[in-house]
C-alpha cells in the first residue's frame, strides 16, 4: 500500500482502488510507492535554482533556455524525461515590464524535476481559481507587491507543457558566484509568487 | 498535417460545454486570444480520456487579455490549447 496518501476523502478512494488492484494481482504490493519514489528522485527546487543561476551569468544560455528549455537544461545535467514521457518545458522570464506567475487551473501540473513536489497551496482550489482572475491581489497575499506599471502574465498549464519562471537577478548580486546566486532562488520565485 | 495557426494569429475558442473530459478551461471558452507560439503536437486529451487513440495535433500557447475573459483586470492569461479548440477569430464559433 502506498505511503503517499493524505487523509482527504479522495485519498480514501485511491487507497481502496489500490488495495483492490493489489488483491487482484494487477499491482505488486508497494509497487506504487516504488514508482512514485522513482518519479520524485532528484526532483528539487535546487535544480530550478541552478538553471536560473546559469541564466543570470550566461546571456547566451538564457537565450537558449527561453527558445528551447528542454535542450538547454541538459547543459546543466537536468532533464524533463523522468516520467512516462519527456515533458515539454517552457521557461518564462520576468522583466522590468512584466512579471510571470504559473498555475494549473484544471489540476496541479507542475515541473517536478526542477521544483520538486509542489506545495499544498499550489494544488488548492483557492490558488487555482483566484490567480487567473486577480493575480495582483493573490501575489500581494504572498507578500509580493508589484509596481502598478508592471504587467502580470499568468500561465495556465492546461495541456502538456510545464512552466518555470526565470526571476530577475537581484540588484547588488554582481560579485556572487553562480553557486551563491543559486542559493538566492526560492521555489516561490520559480513559480512566480515571490520576486526571486 | 500543417499547423493551421501561426504566432500573432487571432483565434476564438470553442464555446461548447462538452459532456466529457476537456482541457479547454471553462473560463477560456468562447474567447478571442492571440497565438503566442506552438507548444508541440499531442493527441487530443478529450479523445484519449474516452479511450480513443487520436493522431497528434498542434497545441498552441494562446494569450488572452484578462478583460476579455473576466470583464476586468489588466493582466494576461496564457493557456495551451489544442487546434481542435480553435477557429480563426473572424469566423463565428
UniProtKB/TrEMBL annotation, chain A:
The enzyme's E.C. designation: 4.2.1.84
EC primary class: lyase
InterPro entries found in the cross-reference section: CN_Hdrase_a/SCN_Hdrase_g_sf (IPR036648), CN_Hdrtase_a/SCN_Hdrlase_g (IPR004232), CN_Hdrtase_asu/SCN_Hdrlase_gsu (IPR023900)
Entry keyword Iron: yes
Domain Nitrile hydratase alpha/Thiocyanate hydrolase gamma, chain residue ranges per copy: 10-194
The protein's name: Nitrile hydratase
Residues at which Fe(3+) binds: 104, 107-109
Protein family membership: Belongs to the nitrile hydratase subunit alpha family.
Coiled coil feature spans: none
Entry-linked Pfam families: NHase_alpha
Sorted UniProt keywords: Iron, Lyase, Metal-binding
Domain of life per record: Bacteria
Entries under SUPFAM superfamilies matching the protein: Nitrile hydratase alpha chain (SSF56209)
GO molecular function terms noted in the UniProt entry: nitrile hydratase activity; transition metal ion binding
Automatic annotation (TrEMBL), chain B:
Pfam family, one: NHase_beta_C
InterPro entries according to UniProt: CN_hydtase_beta_dom_C (IPR024690), Elect_transpt_acc-like_dom_sf (IPR008990)
Domain of life: Bacteria
Top-level EC class: lyase
UniProt GO MF annotations: nitrile hydratase activity
Nitrile hydratase beta subunit domain sequence ranges: 3-87
EC number in record: 4.2.1.84
Entry keywords, A to Z: Lyase
Protein name: Nitrile hydratase
Gene source species: Petropleomorpha daqingensis
